[in-house]
Amino acid sequence: MLTLQRAKELHDSQVTEAHLILHAKNVMYAMGAMADHFGEDRVHWMAVGYLHDYDYEQHPEAHLQFTEQPLLEAGVPAEDVRAILSHGYGICTEVKPETNLEKSLFTVDELTGIIQACARMRPKGITDLETKSFMKKFKDKKFAAKCNRALIQQGCEMLGMSVSEVAEICIAGMKPYAADIALLGTEEGGESC
Ligand SMILES: [Fe+2]
């Protein structure tokens, strides 16, 4: 099984840009919370979440085309590689999310982007962000317009959950790590957008 330490070694050997590392952490913490929700292995889900964009910095135009072989050769279990490939389902792979881990990764990859954008605008960052406020921003198509709401909806449908249920889990899962993901807010000297 992929360990968090191994996921970090592999990911950080390929990814150096600060914003991409922050994204990996956002997805990692959200995946930890989703694992708790499903009663699954938290650290394992976090590891897969952290590693999911392994080839993106090096191959942004061919995302997930440079993932399968190197990760298998590096000893990452096939089921974890499959999970990573499935987050690009319908966009850059044909690997359909089947397990709750895969469906969660597919969903939170995009969902954490809007949570991050939303939290960055707030004086107290993510620390006092409530799901209700988040959902207002989610429904405002002009806000963080590049984040693909349809993909998030599709992922939530696969999970059999509402966007608000998944967002609640992810926000709660990210809050304790606000400092690590630079979401303490503008009052605390965090980044604003
Ligand atoms: Fe991602």
What does this structure look like?
With 193 residues, the chain is mainly α. The chain has one domain. It is 57% helix and 0% strand. The protein is built from nine helices and no strands. The protein has helices spanning 4-14, 18-38, 42-51, 68-73, 78-86, 100-120, 131-139, 149-159, 163-174. Helix 6 (100-120) crosses helix 8 (149-159). The longest helix has 21 residues, at 18-38. The radius of gyration is 16 Å and the shape is globular. Mean pLDDT is 95; it is low at 189-193. Fe (ii) ion binds next to helix 2.
List the helices and strands and how they pair.
Elements: H1 4-14, H2 18-38, H3 42-51, H4 68-73, H5 78-86, H6 100-120, H7 131-139, H8 149-159, H9 163-174
Bound molecules: fe (ii) ion.
Fe (ii) ion (FE2) is lined by residues 23, 27, 52-53, 109.
Q: How much β-strand is present in the residues? A: under 5%
Helix content: 55-70%
- What ligands does this structure carry? fe (ii) ion
* Sheet with the most strands, sense and barrel status: none
Question: Characteristics of this structure?
Answer:
9 helices, globular, mainly alpha, 193 residues, single chain, 0% strand, binds fe (ii) ion
